[in-house]
Design a protein that fits this description.
The chain has 234 residues and is of the alpha/beta class. The protein is built from 8 helices and 9 strands. The strands form 2 sheets. The protein has a 6-stranded parallel beta sheet with strand order 5-6-7-3-8-9, with helices on both faces. A 3-stranded antiparallel beta sheet has the order 2-1-4, with no helix packed on it. Helix 3 runs antiparallel to helix 4. The structure holds adenosine-5'-triphosphate. GO terms for molecular function: ATP binding; ATP hydrolysis activity. This is Dipeptide transport ATP-binding protein DppF.
Length: 234
């Protein structure tokens, strides 16, 4: 699967500034990819644009082959409260993927009582059942936006290993602040630099943010691992 963004221009309505201006890059799936960048660089926004949740004012997102959905998951999602977590997972999971749920239960859900309501779970448990809900659907590309941010490190690592192994024929885009943590899983890392257009510079000043256009990352550590890093910017 090839997912390409070409000439993406996007600004939030009512905002005077553009978050992306003529942004282009290509993800050559399948495989596990990471999108990394400083807070506020626009990672979530880009994830939503790739998944078709947000529409750019100019430019195009193209997936080849076109069939097969791109799903976007994040850490603040909710399940309905009128049914148990298990009932909901049964309802939304694709029948052919039930075996994945059974496998995932052993590594990501072993300590979670699936008969409970979502609201009664801890934040990390919520993150894990939410990921299960996506992994058991059909997708060509899954964007995981900090969706395991409240899960402890060893469990997160187990889950990422599981995803990498079981979904090696799909494209996973993992959005994270922790580049080193995800580097070893990744075929390629995309570094989203902060945009440098004048409207955004003004905004950074107002918000008291660092104006540095490039986001710092430990280049030598990543190079040692032999992972390809692509900087994307507008
Ligand atoms: N709904 C919105 N309306 C207006 N501005 C928004 C909206 N959502 C995000 N923004 C702004 O767009 C910029 C990019 O936000 P985004 O959430 O995409 O960044 P991010 O890189 O994912 O950040 P973080 O790592 O902190 O989650 C920020 O300056 C944010 O304030």
């Amino acid at each position: 699967m090839i997912l390409s963004a070409s000439g993406i221009t996007f600004g939030y309505p009512k905002e005077e500034w553009l978050l992306f201006e003529n942004l282009s890059f290509t993800i050559k799936g399948p495989g596990f990819f990471s999108l990394f960048g400083l807070s506020g660089a626009g990672k979530s926004t880009l994830g939503k644009i790739l998944a078709g949740i947000l529409k750019p004012s100019r430019g195009l997102v193209k997936k080849e082959p076109a069939s097969g959905p791109i799903l976007y998951s994040h850490s603040e999602e909710r399940f309905p409260n009128w049914e148990s977590v298990y009932q909901h997972l049964q309802k939304v999971s694709v029948k052919d993927n039930q075996h994945l749920l059974e496998k995932f239960k052993k590594i990501g859900l072993e300590s979670v009582d699936l008969n409970t309501r979502f609201k009664d779970l801890s934040q990390g448990q919520k993150n894990r059942v939410n990921i299960a809900r996506y992994l058991t659907q059909n997708f060509d590309c899954l964007i995981i936006d900090e969706a395991l941010s409240n899960v402890d490190e060893p469990t997160r690592e187990k889950i990422l290993q599981f995803i990498k192994k079981e979904f090696s024929n799909r494209t996973i885009l993992y959005i994270s602040h922790h580049v080193i943590e995800v580097a070893r899983f990744s075929k390629q890392i995309f570094i989203l630099k902060r945009p440098t257009n004048s409207s955004i510079k003004k905004l950074f000043k107002i918000k008291g943010l660092d104006e540095t256009p490039c986001c710092p990352y430990p280049q030598s550590t990543i190079k040692e691992k032999g992972i390809e890093v692509l900087e994307i910017a507008t």
